[in-house]
Backbone:
């Protein structure tokens, strides 16, 4: 098996990890996409995805190509949800750390990628595996002078010393929690334990705190500056019975207590026929999408997880969580744009952080009117119902989207709810943007 056969197997094996988007092989290449690396058997840009290269959206716009790959897909653990588990009969492959480092450095030198995400199955013990991941990262940084983004997976159970060493070479590190409760973890991933996951996460959080106190944590992660800029994690949605409320409370706890920069949600895609797992006909992509929206609400909009739920512990699938909240708290609306503060504006469906700040700026400059409102990136289909401008509903000046039924007003939330429902035909998997450059 040559280097590129190994790469093909190990990049496909890495695809299930949501902490970096997965390649979409059917995707048309962008005209500006760089040529495939020299030596690839079929050097067509269209085939980059087959080698694990995918474009990652950046917060703030644009995207960059990264390589997403495992060091090995052999694993001594047997997590029931994972295609690489011990009992799976997939084709196995492994890179030597030196070879993987050379491959990544090669791709980077030719401009094919601007970042890499490396994970691995557990080869022997967590510490053995962690040593090999660190070896790969150190070779990349020290021998090849690689300075781009490098996301290194920390293996559950790895010792604190190795975790700290990994942080010296990685731009980002992550420990995947995967299952949102101890009970599910022990049932579905019996080789792991909560302690094996939370201890490395605590080590990372403590180390980040220490670096921050010394003002050593880089604010940006596009170019490596000698230290890790943060940790992320992944939660699988739908492999176990926990509700959205349980998942989001856990995520909120991780943001506030573990200095986690981003929680990724991954719709469970059933593999095999394991009786400990559900077997939905379609992975719960709609649920994954709503969890990402809810997650944004408490990261950027000041919501707490508790506010997002009332009678049910699950988010509504056909209404975004902010509109759902607004319709349950209709007495707080309409919000008057001439007097509302930032937090009130952020609670209006259809108004995001950027538009909310812009509204305050325009108001201060005496230029807030219907014409300027129309130019902002506000989703007026939603916002129009929940705001007034100088005491007047903008609906009197703005044309509502076609199809709004008669009597569709704040006073009739049930009719408004029906109008705002999103009838999504076929939910698709999400490639969330990474928080590069944030
Ligand atoms: S530890 Fe579990 S999730 Fe990770 S590769 Fe092995 S079987 Fe898969």
Residues:
């Amino acid at each position: 098996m040559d280097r590129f056969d190994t790469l093909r197997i190990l990049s496909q094996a890495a695809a299930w990890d949501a902490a970096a988007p997965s390649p979409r092989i059917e995707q048309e290449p962008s005209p500006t996409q760089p040529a495939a690396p020299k030596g690839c058997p079929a050097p067509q840009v269209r085939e980059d995805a087959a080698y694990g290269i995918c474009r990652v959206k950046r917060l703030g716009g644009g995207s960059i190509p990264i390589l997403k790959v495992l060091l090995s897909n052999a694993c001594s653990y047997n997590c029931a949800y994972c295609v690489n588990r011990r009992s799976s009969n997939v084709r196995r492959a492994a890179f030597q750390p030196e070879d993987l480092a050379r491959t990544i450095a090669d791709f980077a030198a030719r401009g094919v990628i601007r970042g890499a995400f490396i994970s691995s199955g557990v080869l022997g013990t967590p510490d053995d595996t962690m040593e090999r991941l660190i070896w790969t990262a150190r070779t990349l940084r020290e021998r090849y002078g690689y300075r781009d983004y490098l996301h290194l997976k920390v293996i559950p159970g790895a010792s604190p010393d190795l975790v700290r060493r990994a942080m010296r070479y990685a731009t980002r590190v992550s420990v995947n929690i995967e299952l949102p409760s101890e009970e599910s973890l022990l049932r579905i991933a019996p080789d792991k334990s909560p302690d094996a996951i939370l201890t490395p996460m605590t080590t990372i959080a403590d180390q980040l705190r220490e670096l921050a106190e010394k003002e050593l944590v880089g604010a940006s992660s596009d170019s490596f500056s000698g230290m890790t800029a943060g940790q992320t994690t992944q939660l699988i949605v739908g492999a176990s019975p926990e509700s959205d409320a349980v998942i989001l409370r856990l995520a909120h706890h991780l943001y506030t207590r573990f200095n986690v920069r981003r929680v990724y949600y991954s719709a469970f895609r059933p593999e095999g026929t394991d009786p400990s797992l559900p077997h939905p006909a379609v992975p719960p992509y709609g649920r994954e999408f709503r969890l990402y929206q809810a997650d944004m609400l408490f990261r950027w909009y000041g919501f707490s997880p508790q506010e997002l739920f009332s009678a049910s512990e699950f988010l509504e699938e056909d209404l975004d969580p902010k509109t759902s909240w607004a319709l349950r708290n209709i007495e707080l609306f309409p919000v008057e744009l001439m007097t509302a503060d930032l937090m009130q504006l952020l609670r209006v469906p259809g108004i995001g952080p950027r538009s909310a700040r812009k509204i305050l700026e325009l108001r201060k400059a005496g230029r807030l009117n219907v014409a300027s409102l129309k130019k902002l990136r506000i989703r007026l289909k939603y916002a129009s119902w929940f705001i007034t401008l100088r005491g007047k509903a903008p609906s009197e000046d703005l044309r509502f989207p076609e199809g709004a039924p008669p009597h569709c007003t704040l006073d009739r939330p049930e009719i408004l709810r029906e109008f705002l429902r999103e009838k999504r035909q076929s939910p698709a998997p999400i490639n969330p943007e990474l928080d590069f450059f944030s």
Observations:
- The chain has two domains: 3-235, 321-420.
- The chain has a mean pLDDT of 85.
- The CA atoms of residues 84 and 420 lie 42 Å apart.
- The first strand starts at residue 53 and ends at 57.
